[in-house]
Structure formats: structure tokens, C-alpha cells
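Reagents: none. Just compute today. Aminopeptidase N.
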Amino acid sequence: MHRRIIVPGALAAAVLLLAIPASAAPHSPGAPGIGDPYYPAYGNGGYDVSHYDLRLKYQPETDELEGTATLVARTTQDLSRFNLDFLLDVDEVRVNGAKASFTTSGEHELEVTPKTPLAKGTAVTVVVRYHGVPSSKRAYGFTSWHRTPDGGVAANEPEAAAWWFPSNDHPLDKATYDVSVLVPDGTQAISNGTLQSTSSRLGWTRWNWRSNKPQATYLATLAVGKFDLTTGTTDSGIPVVNAYSKDLGDHAGAARASIERSGEIVDWLSGYFGPYPYNALGGYVPNTNTGYALETQTRPFYSPRQFANGSNVSLVVHELAHQWYGDVVSLKGWKDIWINEGFARYAQWLWSEHEGEGTAQELADYVYASHPADDPFWTVRPGDPGPDDQFDIAVYDRGALAVQALRNAIGDEAFFTILKGWPQKYAHGNASVADFRRYAEEVSGKPLAALFDTWLFQPSKPGVPAARAAAVAKAAEAVPRPKSWKRIAATNGVHEHGGRAEGAGHRH
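Predicted 3D structure written out:
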């Protein structure tokens, strides 16, 4: 931000400054972070990416990845230098065709200095040629790359991109993607969007995927291994591609029984959230030892262990609900995680109702009653949980309870209008909890600041008056456990697996 302060004594100097041509104004480096207080070094300043073209070659036996990433971007300031978030070894960087100098700094920063400084508003093409072994790279003490017996997987939240492509790694900078991956014959490469083509030559097969709608970097995924692919079409005409590792063992049947219902679930969710926002759908289960799932855009990632006790359709509902709440509308800052997780959990409550296993109201009553006032559960504030509690179970369960409180406060007509309207109002963009509150007030015609404060921002259990107002104040002994609770709670392992220090990164 340029501030010009003019005091009377400096007026002549100011006039002189204004006479200097704009071209003489100094260019400055882009910020090494996009400005998110939870993760100050994530993302970068000075430019906005509109498209990533990733042309990769991966050798599963050695976990070696080589690639050429082409970023189509536009500068948002006069730039002398800019950063990309990236961890692999860089061979060459070109900016608008000319070789650029580069170095590394911090935990994951690639600093690029173009041959010629870039003026604000300039169209920029950045080409990065690179190679490396993703599983060998660590940042902040962990890796987000999952090595599997037959390959590797990039899927994590809030970060995974830096292990396989250079990017502006924050949801504020969404872009379209072409991902082309060369792998040995007999191996498959799975990514987001539609499978455009495959072709084989000299023992290698190239898989070409396209995501034609803006996508956050953490929602971009890559899985290479030996998969069985299934294809189909939903009732509404969306092509479905699912992929299952050939090495899932006893979990294979339950995984298929769950994920093969994706088309049915998306058509059902469309009744609540409006038309499905993408032209592709699916899910994939690689042979990882992780314990979480992730709503990677159009093709969620699932861990095999989530199907250890049988089918888990409620989990599939959760990840597919994110396609509207989290993917098509992404958070502005990581503190806005409630819009993603509270509504995806609430979709599970609606599915429970659909299956006749407990209504959303009964589930809200149960959550409220089953956590006494001194339970640490209530100290987490879903509306701004802090980076350490970003994926705490309270963000999900207390978050969904807040959604039910909102529904009871404004009535079903306004509530379901909001559920459908929100993904359309901010489609392919970003929004905050404050934006959601304003939108809910606009649609319902009611002031909601006190309700949002009570259910999302106070580090304590809402008292009986507030709970009565939200129609969730029954005594604990009067609230039976809904039949669906065990199945919904089975997805909680998704959020409780090891943290970053164990090398697994964040969880979802």
C-alpha cells in the first residue's frame, strides 16, 4: 500500500514527486505470505494465478517426480521479485520467456527474480522446471506426500501443493488446472476433474486431467499407483470416475459400497444445496496408512482404514457436501473453517434424517446434552478456532449445532433458501464467516449477531436460555442417542489422526 502524506511544508516536494513518471516508481518484492494470520508464510503477495499447467513424469519405484509447471498469472503490484511455495529441486525458472534467477528461503519459499521488473497489471507466464523425491522433503517438521507401496499421493489440508508443484498456496488464489502425468504402463495417475485422454508409448502411459473451474491449491490432488477404475454417469448427467487401489484387501468391498453411491448422494445433496457446481465427480482410495479423508475438488480422497468396519456412506456425504461448502465457495482465511466443516457435518445430519436414523434436531439435542459445561469441547470457538484447533471435533459437532440453532432461529423457509443461495452467491470465489452472517441476515430479515456470537465465538457452553431459544435445551437424560450417531462418530477418526510432527501434516 502506498501512502502519500502531504503537509503544507511538503507541498512543493509532493508536486515534484507527482511529476515523476510512473515508470520511475520503485518496484518492490511481493510479500512471502498472502496475509493469513493462522499461517503467515502460506501463499504469496504480488500476483494472482489464473491457470496451472502441470506436465509431470513420476517413477513409482523410486518416488522420483520431474515436472514442468506453467503458471498463467497477473501482477497485482509493481514487482521486482516474487515467491512461489515449493519444496522440490528447481532446475530452471523463466518469466515471460526469459530466464529468471531464483533462490530458496524459509521453510518452503522459492524466490524468483525476473530479468526485467514487472509492472502492476502485467500478464505473466512463469515456467518452472524441477525434479525431486517428494517423500524426502519436509517443511515445519512434516511431509504432506504419502508414499504408498505402489506410488505416491498428494492430499492434505491446509497444505499439500508444495510437495508436487510450485504455487500460490492459499485458497484466496484459485485457478483452473491441466494435469498431465506420465507413469509406467500398468500404473494409473488420478487427479481432479475430467479425464481428457490417455496415451501409451515405449512403456509409459500419459494421463491428462482437466479442472475447468477455479480450484484452491490444497484441493488439487495427485495419486499414482495401481488402481481399478469405475466409470458411470449420475441421473443429472455428470460423469463419474472412481479409483480403488488394487491392494485394499478386506477394505475393498466396503470402500466400493460407499463411494459407488457418490452419484446418488450428489443428486440428493443438490436438493439442499442447488445444482452440483462441477462437470466431474468421483472418489479415490489409495493404499495409504493415513486416517483422514479430504474433499479434493470433484474427486475426494479417502483412506482405506475408514472402511475397516464396513461401509461409511455418511463420510462420503460429508466430503461431497464440501464440493459446495468449501470448494465452490472457499474460505477467505483459515479461521473461516466453520463454513466448510459445520455445513459438511450438518449434511451428515440431514442424511441421517433421510435414512430414518435420527433427525437433525435429535442430533443437535444429543450434541448439546452429551457435553457438560466443563467439557473442553466448549472452549473451542468454531467461528475462529485458532490454528491448533482448526480441525478439532468441536468445529464439526459444535459447528453443526450452530447451524441447527440458526435454522431454529430463522425458520425452515429462510434456512433452506440460504443453504441453496450461498453457494451461488459466492460461486468460485471466497467468503468469510462474517460474509455468511450478513447473507443470513439479508435473507432472513433478522439480526443474527448475538446468535452467531453465542454459538460460534464464545468459549463456553451456551446457557439454558440461549439453548431454549435455539430449541436444544433438553436435559441430558431425556436425550436418547440417535441411531446414526455411531456411524457419524465413525468419521471422527478422520479428524483425530496424528499431527504434523508425526509426518502426516494437518488432518481433515
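The chain is about 25% helix and 25% strand.
Action item: order primers for follow-up constructs.
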